[in-house]
Each structure stands twice: as C-alpha cells, then as structure tokens.
Amino acid sequence: MNTTMSNAPSDEQVQRQAEPINALIGAVGTVVVGQEQMIRSLVIGLLTGGHVLLEGVPGLAKTLTVTTLADALHAKFARIQFTPDLLPADLIGTEIYNPKEATFTARKGPIFANIVLADEINRAPAKVQSALLEAMQEKHATIGGETHSLVASGEPFLVLATQNPIEQEGTYPLPEAQVDRFMLKIKVGYPTPDDERLIVDRMISTIETPTVSAMLTLDQLGQARKTVNEVYIDDKLKTYIVSLVQATRDPGAVGVKWSMDMEKMIEFGASPRASLSLARAARANAFLEGRGFVTPSDIKMVGMDVMRHRVMISYEAEAEGITSEDLVQEVFDRIAIP
C-alpha cells in the first residue's frame, strides 16, 4: 500500500488507536515480568499479521507470554505441543466417516484459530513443520481434497512458535527456507536480577499463575492494523531499507568500508521478505510510539528481529565466532541513514 503524507493518519489519530494496544502491552507486562521487548515484538506481529519465532532456553516465560497475550484478546486461541510422534492431521484436521449417512465430514484441527501457539516447534518432524509453514504462508489448509480458509472467521491468523536452542536430542531444526517465513525471530534472554527478584516476590506465596482478562476485541485490533498500514514511510526510508537488505547479499557493491571481510562472512543474504518485513514492522513500531510516520529509529528498533534469521553465515565466520547478529549489526552501523 503506497501511503502519501497527505492521507497518512495524524499523530492524534495514531495515539488514539494505539492507546488500547499499549494498555494491552502493559497488562501482559503485569503477568510476565522483565520481558517488555518480547511482548512488544509479539504485538508488532499482531499489528502486521507477521508470524513470530521465539527462541530461548527453558523457563523464560515464552509460553506464558503467548498465552497471556491470547487471554487479553477476544480471539480464538489454540496451543499445540509439538512432539516427535505428531502427524500433520493432528495439526490440520482429518475426515471423519459417518456410517449412518455413509459420508465423510471434515473435522478441523487446532490450526483453525486466530492465534496458534506452536510450542517447541523443532520437536516435530519435517512433514509436520511443512504442514504448519505451508498454512502460515497460504492461510488455508486442505482436508480430504477440500481447501478450507484459515481466516474465514476473520483476521488475524498468527502463528507464534517457540524453540529451545540448546537441546539437540529429539529435535528437527527448521530449514532456513522455512525460518524465513517468520517475520520476526526474537531471542529471549534471562531477566535482570531486579526483575528476577520481583518474580520471586510475586510467585513465592502462591502457586496460581496471574492472569489477565480480555480487554481488546478483534474489531479494535482490525482498526489498529488498518491504521498501521496507513502510517507514512518516506521514499528515502524505503531506499534505506532496500540498501540494508542488499548489503547482506552483495556487501562489496554498496560502496561501504566494512570493519571485517563481509564477502567471506556471509553465505547467503536476506530475502526480499526482509525488505517487506522491515517496512511493515517499522510502521507498527511508529504506531506504538504514537506517530503517523516512520523514522530511521523505527527501522533500527525492529531491524535485528527481522534480519537475524535471514542472514546465513559462512563456515569462516562460524570458525571465527562471528554470528549472524554480528553481521546484521555491522550492516546497520555502516549503512548511512538518509
């Protein structure tokens, strides 16, 4: 959608639309302590219709954050615990035979929901991962030769997946081409000592997990998403986004003096999905900040989550201990802001 400055929403309109969204972020933050950036990134996914991959060691409230966010929305929620014996039919659904009428009826699986939590996605075999990721891309699923829309009852359809990066036994790592279908990949870190102390103080006297009540309707979310799509992004910033992505594919062609040999460090650069995701996520970040226009800081704020899983490092980079995040940071540090 090409939005000009003349028909972009005013800051007052954006602030009015963003108020309940920011209240939602605050409500989830009362349950999940010390993970404000993760909550904000999940909301950016909600506002843009982008799927999100959460990666972190066990016990960092990844699942709790997603379920709490779903509780705060008047939306249909489904949680799927991925295991090695899971079948595509357990995800999508199957046909049930009715002997009385001698007919087959489609029984839809848990993927037919507004928000789907794919817990420990890397524990399921490739055929199950492919079934999920195809549904993510196409927004429909086929049961017994009949295609069913995943958004027939209304948007959003959002997959929020978690994975544990430290465990290898009994896991099936997602192929890079499938990881690319996630708009954002969020690295979830440990809480600070103060946040962890607050968690202990809050939970030591009870075994009940705090909850939030539904406070945002799908209509309100839909209006907010419409406003996000109307947030103005200048042509110079679009060119800046493209330059960032292009620099990961052909570092030598952008005329930048790098602090490392980027040509040898990058095996494959980011796909065009990265450019689209950067623009959309930057708009959502500007919306949450109460602005009707995108600034370079919005792009930088969401850049790492958009790019870290789309830049493939070479064996040489791996041998030198350089990560994809190091390379993405180098790109953002060296490419000039317009």
Report on the structure:
With 338 residues, the chain is α/β, with parallel strands linked by helices. It has 2 domains: 8-204 and 212-223, Rossmann fold (3-Layer(aba) Sandwich), CATH 3.40.50.300; 231-334, Helicase, Ruva Protein, domain 3. 46% of the residues lie in helices and 14% in strands. The chain is built from 14 helices and 11 strands. The strands form 4 sheets. It has a 5-stranded parallel beta sheet with strand order 2-5-8-1-9. Strands 3-4 form a two-stranded antiparallel ribbon. Strand 3 (93-98) and strand 4 form a beta hairpin. The chain is globular and about 75 Å long. The two termini are 22 Å apart. 40% of the residues are buried. The mean pLDDT is 87.
Fourth-level CATH superfamily of the largest domain: P-loop containing nucleotide triphosphate hydrolases
CATH class of the largest domain: Alpha Beta
Report the major sheet: 5 strands, parallel
Beta-strand percent range: 5-15%
Residue stretches low in confidence (pLDDT < 50, at least 5 long) are none
Mean pLDDT over the residues:
87
Annotation, overall tally of beta strands: 11
Q: Tell me, what's the shape? A: globular
Oligomer: single chain
How many helices in DSSP terms? 14
End-to-end CA span: 22 Å
Supply the CATH architecture of the largest domain. Answer: 3-Layer(aba) Sandwich
Give me the side-by-side strand order of the main sheet. Answer: 2-5-8-1-9
Q: What is the domain total for the residues?
A: 2
CATH fold-level topology of the largest domain:
Rossmann fold
Question: SSE order in H/E notation?
Answer: HHEHEHEEEHEEEHEHHHHEHHEHH
